[in-house]
Every structure is written in structure tokens, then in C-alpha cells.
Task: structure prediction
Amino acid sequence: MKSVRKKELRTIRVQKNALGTNEEIALKNKTIFGKAFVVNLLSSPGSGKTSLLEAVIPVLKDAGLKMAVIEGDVDTDLDKKRIDALGVPAYQIVTNGTCHLDARMVNNSLGRLDIKNADVIFIENVGNLVCPTSFNLGEDIKAVVLSVTEGDDKPLKYPAAFYKSRVLIINKTDLLPFLKADLERIIKNALSVNKDLKIFETSCYGIPKDSPAGSACDKGMLGFAGFIKESVRSKTARLQGAFLNKGLGI
Ligand SMILES: Nc1nc2c(ncn2[C@@H]2O[C@H](COP(=O)(O)OP(=O)(O)O)[C@@H](O)[C@H]2O)c(=O)[nH]1
Ligand SMILES: [Mg+2]
Result:
């Protein structure tokens, strides 16, 4: 009995050390990211993270923002190839089965990705709503994508993904007429876990013809793009303020 308890304690200590090291590297990443606003995208596999990037990147490009993308997957570089097609620098981390990205993996990728001029860096995490929530990558925010096909109980079943995120993107809203999904309940459940979530309802399909620059964006997607633009602006202002205060010795 005693030895089981000892083993448990040792396991907890090792986990604590691993997460402590992760925090230290995440802090280094934050410094390397510099002025770029960094979004860590979480979701189940297939809810539409890469589709969202394909829709939103052209809009942000049109607005003059420079971007870079870090892709995380257990195996292939298929998502990186989709981002390459948008003409944005991208790097694929293949985790070889690990169910999440950690700060060290991201740190290793930073020497191989051109982020010098980036205003925004998107990190697409490995698809699942559990493991990625435990690892800070040095990002500014986590954004969780939930598609309407996944069920309105998911914010309650996987609360960490929702309470650690600043943004919730409810995707595949074009499918609502064909499902029993209850959009209001998804929102209610998500807000019961995190009342401060900023929520965007999006569809990567069925795009209105009047969307800007022929982009594949609906209103929710444009709302998300607007949120990113505003976040870049306020991060720049915050950093400039801190720089001036330092210069003035405040
Ligand atoms: N109907 C519908 N399908 C979508 C939407 N967004 C993505 N998909 C489809 O969902 C599948 C998974 O999308 P993907 O972006 O690869 O998801 P990821 O695994 O989260 O990166 C693909 O077949 C997409 O075409 C959407 O808004 N509506
Ligand atoms: Mg993907």
C-alpha cells in the first residue's frame, strides 16, 4: 500500500516537473513571438480548424496582415499543404502519435518558420478536446472550434477546452437544418462553463455571394477576422505602451 502511494507521489511530481518545464519554454516562445498575436486552435478532429484558416487567412491578407501557421498532427503534413496553397509560411509538426503540441515542439519549429514580420500566428493543435488544453504554447489566446454535428453537450463534457479559451467558433452552421442540434443549447452550455467566451457562428460552406474579395467567408467568419484584426491592433498598442513606459522609467 505504502509503495503504491509512493509511486503515485512520484508520478505527480514528474507531471509537475514536465508542466513546469513546459511553462518555462512557453515563456521563451512568447518572447520569440514578439508583436505577433498568437492563436492556439483547439477542436475535435474534423470540426473545421483547417477550413476556418482557409477561409479567414485571405480576408486577413486583404487587410494587409502578415501571417504564419504552425500545424500539429499525429501523422501527415496534409494540413500544411492546404496552408501552403494560400501562400502563407507554414511548418508542420508531426507528433508521431502524441495527442497534443507542447511548448518545446513549438520552440523547435520557430527556427524553421519565417515569423519575422508576422502580425498573426495560428497554431492548429492536434485534434482532440482533452490533451491540448494542458499545455501552454506561449500563445495569446486559445480558440476552440466546435461543429454543430458534435452535440450540444460537448462544452459540459470537455469543460477545460471551453474555460481555457477566449473564443468559441461554432462551425458547420450550414448543416443545422439537417440536424437535431440545438444551437441555443450549445451557446448556453458553453457560457455556463465560461461566461466570457466570445462566440462566432460560422460556416465554411454556403457562402454569400457578396462576401469580400470573393473570399469564402460568411458573417461569423468575418466577425472572427475582425476580432483578430482588433487583437493585433491592441497587442501592438500594449507593447508600444510598455516600451514607452520603460523608456520613461515608469
Ligand atoms: N458542411 C460543412 N462542412 C465543413 C465545414 N467546415 C469544414 N467542413 C468539412 O469538414 C471536414 C473536416 O474539415 P477540416 O477543416 O479538415 O477539419 P480539422 O480536422 O478540424 O482541421 C472537411 O470535409 C471539410 O470540408 C462547414 O462549415 N460546413
Ligand atoms: Mg486540420
About this structure: Residues 2-33 form the longest helix (32 residues). The CA atoms of residues 38 and 121 lie 5 Å apart. The radius of gyration is 19 Å.
